[in-house]
Specification:
The protein has 471 residues and is an all-alpha fold. It is 73% helix and 2% strand. The chain has a two-stranded antiparallel sheet with strand order 1-2.
Length: 471
């Protein structure tokens, strides 16, 4: 049996620190962009500081910086603990860590300079794409190599989800980013027209499905039972949840292409699969919620558990709203409006953000051998700041988006549009300010967390002798 001291937690610490740093950077840039939408003069007439340059920096910072770092860190920790074995190769783990941070620094430099493929969530140019693929292969070798060396026969369900996240992201990223380079920092996709759109949204929607969904689910299936001090409510249901997502999610991306030149049968596949996804998504949410509710006494007073519970509620909302927006009538109203932005961010901030915050609060003190958080009061303040932020953000964009969609569709008796573009912009302007305010609340809460966790790990409180030994 592997001794607790043999588990490699140093590289895990580095990944988690990087995740916190990129969360603050990525979300701060998001707040800056929200401010620019309400006060366009904040572009400062600079080509490097305009919305079009900074928006991919925000999405890449949040997805590839914050989310990938926390998933890499927690996956390497969980696979060791549940496999009862140290990492397959510790040197390889550091190659993955520093390789990924180098990629993120390149993104931080090239995107504001305007080097971009223009493909959403895949903006980075071909030299960086090659580096991403190489580092990802090293990460896959490290993760699956550790599972292959496990000293127990069982593969814990979190590792199923992590494995799917690693394999599917590798497949769809490589295929979507096939390109013909014309210079060091410019390339063109090998696909054209409708084919390019289909492949792009096969990637784009599944980047959400397997990075922001399957990966986060994997993390939560380990940490929710830990913080609840209870086993998973239904382990069998967790396996059903896994196969439901893997079986249907990869088909749903074409719901982004409704009313486009993509063949109608391809659009219909996306609609049908989106509706089917309702079932495994809510089954998984029910499983996690019941795990938390199995310790109601602790749930009433433990704000880390409440962060997890809030994340599950937002997951339910997002996985209800996604299939709804895939239905043609709703898509007709919502597409290209602020409603879509509200949907994405209620999921990103509510589901992914709340899950990650809960993991940070539970995991970081234990990684540094501390017994308690420095300030429970600050934790409570963060809880309310985060929830006010998400609520303001989502509600503002729901109202703005639904109103915007209605105004775009409304016609006079002679067939002309009832509202001009400027009138639609004037309608949603105050809601864009509320959206900015929501972002400020969320980021301020995040800064509270950073301060609280910094004080926790640097305080002189009596450390625990070792992190908990049960997997």
């Amino acid at each position: 049996m592997t001794d607790i001291r043999d588990y490699d937690t140093k590289v895990v610490r580095y990944f988690i620190i990087a995740a916190v740093i990129w969360a603050v950077i990525g979300m701060s840039v998001g707040v800056m962009l929200a401010a620019q939408l309400y006060w366009p003069s904040l572009n400062f007439d600079s080509q490097y500081f305009q919305f079009g340059r900074l928006r991919p920096l925000h999405t890449s910072g949040v997805i590839f910086g914050f989310v990938v770092n926390i998933l890499m860190g927690t996956s390497l920790y969980i696979v060791q603990r549940t496999s009862k074995i140290e990492l397959f190769n510790k040197s390889l783990s550091w190659m993955v860590f520093w390789g990924w941070q180098f990629i993120l620094i390149l993104a931080l430099i090239t995107l504001p300079l305007g080097y971009t493929t223009t493909k959403e969530y895949a903006e980075l140019e071909w030299p960086i794409d090659i580096l991403i693929a190489l580092v990802w292969v090293l990460y896959a070798v490290l993760f699956f190599g550790t599972i292959a060396k496990r000293t127990v026969s069982h593969i814990f369900v979190a590792n199923w989800f992590f494995g799917a996240f690693i394999l599917v992201i590798a497949m769809i990223f490589i295929i979507n980013n096939l390109a013909l380079p014309v210079s060091m920092w410019k390339s063109y996709s090998v696909y054209a027209g409708a084919q390019d759109a289909i492949v792009q949204w096969w990637w784009g929607h599944n980047a959400v499905g397997f990075l922001l969904t399957a990966g986060i689910i994997a993390m939560n299936y380990y940490f929710i039972p830990k913080v609840s001090e209870r086993p998973i409510y239904s382990y069998r249901l967790s396996i059903i949840h896994f196969w439901g997502l893997v079986g249907f999610y990869t088909w749903a991306g074409t719901h982004h292409l409704i009313y486009s030149s993509v063949p109608e049968w391809v659009q219909n596949i996306g609609i049908v699969m989106s509706l089917i996804l309702w079932i495994p998504s809510w089954a998984g949410a029910f499983n996690s919620a019941m795990t938390l509710l199995s310790n109601k006494a602790k749930l009433k007073k433990d704000y880390i558990m409440l962060f997890f519970f809030s994340a599950i509620l937002y997951y339910c909302l997002a996985t209800f709203e996604g299939p709804l927006l895939a239905i043609r009538w709703f898509n007709m109203v919502a597409h290209n409006t602020e409603w879509i932005i509200g949907h994405v961010h209620s999921a990103a901030l509510g589901w992914v953000g709340m899950s990650a915050i809960a993991v940070f609060y539970y995991f970081i003190p234990r990684l540094w051998g501390k017994e308690d958080l420095w300030s429970l009061r600050l934790l409570k303040w963060h809880f309310w700041f985060a929830h006010i932020g998400v609520a303001l953000y989502a509600i503002a964009l729901w109202v703005a988006g639904i109103g915007e969609g209605y105004m775009w569709l409304t016609q006079l008796d002679n067939g002309s549009l009832a509202y001009s573009f400027v009138e639609a912009m004037d309608f949603k302007a105050p809601w864009l300010f509320v959206r900015f305010l929501g972002g400020v609340f969320f980021v301020v809460g995040l800064l509270m967390m950073v301060f609280n966790l910094y004080k926790t790990v640097t305080s002189d409180s009596v450390p625990t002798t070792a992190m908990e030994g049960k997997s």
